[in-house]
Design a protein that fits this description.
The protein is an alpha+beta fold. It folds into 2 domains: 4-128, N-terminal domain of MutM-like DNA repair proteins (Alpha-Beta Barrel); 146-272, Helicase, Ruva Protein, domain 3 (Orthogonal Bundle), CATH 1.10.8. The chain is built from 6 helices and 10 strands, in the order αβαβββββββααααββ. Strands 1-6-7-5 form a 4-stranded antiparallel beta sheet. Strands 2-3-4-8 form a 4-stranded antiparallel beta sheet. The chain has a two-stranded antiparallel sheet with strand order 9-10. A hairpin with a 3-residue loop joins strand 3 and strand 4 (68-73). Helix 1 (4-18) packs across helix 6 (198-217), helix 3 crosses helix 6 (198-217) and helix 5 packs across helix 6. It is elongated. The two termini are 29 Å apart. Keywords: DNA damage, DNA repair, DNA-binding, Glycosidase, Hydrolase, Lyase, Metal-binding, Multifunctional enzyme, Zinc, Zinc-finger. Pfam families: Fapy_DNA_glyco, H2TH. Belongs to the FPG family. Its EC number is 3.2.2.23, 4.2.99.18. Monomer.
Length: 277
């Protein structure tokens, strides 16, 4: 599933192509994805100027001139591909939604597994949408400080990795970036969240922000389906220190330790048993 850096990268590409443009045509090629498309999606978007974009967790919000926002989630394997209208090329398979602007910009939502979603919400009430209202803090916001992270963890007896993936606490981190942040912070992924000290929380908050910033600058991590909005792969997978590197030498150790893998809550966790006691 695309995680925060991937969604942020897609949103930035979408914004560059569409912001300030007027939507000329909307094509809906099937009635639903994970849930039905809004019945009035085409009527609400066509003819509207695209004012701005916003990302909340892994949701992209495109705000248009009539006071509405189109909310988009890419699901497990969805892709938003940008191009030009009228190129006389065969549309990709599983392209379920197409937006075209008056200056011929084109965005196609491709989602083979149809786990993504599209909805309409009044822009002034985005935060009260049923999928957004219960979400935690943004990890790149000013709230992501060591003391705040430490306070979040004090009542959590679950493993620290599980707590960091809880969208009610912190949004959008995802499995890849939690593994990387815990490794750089020298925190074992199975430790109880409540055992994390303030010093460790300070270190962890710093690395979370740094890793996400690095990943966004690299265009995200392309492991399976994810590509950027222009169709190119991200590059952060080449900078992973532990994720997906089971059995490879630890990047920090000089003692011959290799990266280990365990399963937590059905997901693979990668770590170094020597660095992360």
């Amino acid at each position: 599933m695309p995680e925060l850096p991937e969604v942020e990268t897609v949103m930035r590409g979408f914004r560059t192509a569409f912001e300030g443009q007027r939507i000329r045509h909307v094509t809906v090629n099937r009635p639903d994805l994970r849930w039905p498309f809004p019945l009035d999606l085409r009527e609400r978007l066509e003819g509207q100027e695209v004012l701005s974009f916003h990302r909340r967790a892994k949701y992209i919000l495109m705000r248009v001139g009539n006071g509405m926002s189109m909310m988009l989630h890419l699901g497990m394997s969805g892709r938003l591909l940008l191009g030009q209208s009228g190129m006389n090329t065969t549309p990709p398979r599983h392209e379920h939604l197409v937006l075209e602007t008056e200056n011929e910009a084109r965005a196609g939502l491709v989602d083979p597994r149809r786990f993504g979603m599209v909805d309409l919400v009044p822009t002034d009430h985005e935060d009260t949408h049923r999928l957004l209202s219960g979400l935690g803090i943004e990890p790149l916001s000013d709230k992501m400080t060591g003391p705040y992270l430490h306070s979040l963890m004090q009542s959590r007896r679950t493993p620290i990795k599980t707590a960091l993936l809880d969208q009610r606490l912190i949004v959008g981190l995802g499995n890849i970036y939690v593994c990387e942040a815990l490794f750089r912070s020298h925190i074992h992924p199975t430790r109880a969240a409540t055992s994390i000290t303030l010093q460790e929380a300070n270190r962890l908050a710093t690395f979370i922000r740094a890793i996400l910033t690095e990943a966004i600058a690299s265009g995200g991590s392309s492991l399976r389906d994810y590509v950027q909005a222009d169709g190119t792969k991200g590059g952060f997978q080449d900078l992973h220190l532990v994720y997906g590197r089971e059995g490879e030498p630890c990047s920090y150790c000089a003692t011959g330790y290799t990266v280990s893998r365990i399963t937590q809550s059905g997901r693979s966790t990668f770590y170094c048993a020597n660095c992360q006691k």
